[in-house]
Amino acid sequence: MPFILPLRYQPKTTIGAGGMGVVQLYRDTSLDRDVAVKFTQRLDNIDRVYDELRALQQLRSNHVVQLYDVIRKTPTSFEIALVEEFLPGADLDSVGPMSGQKLLLTLWQISSGLADVHDVGLIHRDIKPDNLKAGADRHLKLIDFGLTRPTGTRAKTVGFVGTDVYAAPELYAAGSVTFDRKIDVYAFGVTAWRLTGAAFPRCLMLRPPVFDQSAIDFARAAPTLPQDIAFQLQNCLRTNRADRPEISVIRNVLAMHILRDRHRALAVTTGQESRLDASQRAIRIKVSAGDSVDIRYDGLVFSLTSVSGVVYVNNMPAAAGMILPGCCVIAFGAMDRPNERVYTTFDVSQPEISI
Fold this sequence. Notes:
- By secondary structure, this protein is of the alpha+beta class.
- Helix content is about 20%, strand content about 30%.
- Helix 2 runs antiparallel to helix 3, helix 2 runs antiparallel to helix 7 and helix 3 packs across helix 6.
């Protein structure tokens, strides 16, 4: 018995087929937009369809494909069709090597979507270039959530599940394998390597892969990458998952470099304003002969370059080299003498990243 969709959905063409079924392009005449409809072909894949449904129900992200509707084959059937956002752009597997700002922006979009997935307690499990596509808004989006699992007791598998090269070393273990979101971080690192255009080193092609620091060198594979980003990407491929960074850390470092020299900060001390940006990189805040700080903007962060007297940042003792958070209070004077203290509010304006 075929699926019968509501009349608002008018068929256009088939746009793909895979393990979960057929994907067809429809026109939603009520909302005047194209949509992708995923139909289940085999009942033994129905669990994957429901896993994708449960995952996409929880996610609202500029970098994750959106779920619009769910249609049952019959009122009592377990078979469902998922109506999802149509992504007209190419997937990353068909895109050539990247460098410079384009590579940074692409990695930031992937890490942003993956961080949003992790923030709701999910593990994607199949991060790779052909599961990343551009939407009509030019945002790169994660797709194919059929292998997604929540963190916790369901985050285990028996037998290998995933894609060779992109699968983390722990997934190749025998028997019941417990995993966490660090398998996504590993796959992100492999995806980053693929986007540089460099050939995969032999150590990543093994089953299981092993980390060889002499062979996995992001600074050599992508010379335009800032050193700290290359370091973080390198660590994504560590054999020990505890040594891999959280994806949110990578996202934040990427954002910082993409917005180089575009941050602005405002310091206000007893009504007096001081501004820092690319045109005014250093200021001194002096409240008495003995209490002062120097703050410098290096294009990436705002930090204290010198501290004189008794100074606290958000009630923590200040010291030269301290990086100031985006919003903080700098207090001058001893904590046990509140009436004599002077306060500076320090706020950083974060511009948006444009795609």
